[in-house]
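Blinded run. Sample ID left blank on purpose so nobody reads anything into the name before looking at the predicted structure. Input follows.
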Amino acid sequence: MDDNPHAILTVISQIPKGKVATYGQIARLAGLPRNARQVGSVLRRLAKGIEIPWHRVVNAQGMVSHRNSDQTVNDQVNALRNENVEMDHQLRISLPLYQWKP
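Blinded prediction complete.
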């Protein structure tokens, strides 16, 4: 199945500063319901320096997903904090407060 990266990246590019969206939410809005893993796949393939707010995408629990690179996690946490998105010590974000509702 084609993961339709254009549709996924279009949705991600619309997430406003200071808000987050879940992988599943992005998949639904991109017309790919129940395909949250495809969103992660597209994000993993992003070229460095691309101007997509990838850091605003979190998992269904409102947490920054851990990756192979601690630096990537730190980059995401710092980018979210710079947008005044608060998180607890487990890197969990309050979805009722910060989830994007288009």
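Unblinding after everyone has recorded impressions. The mean pLDDT is 91.
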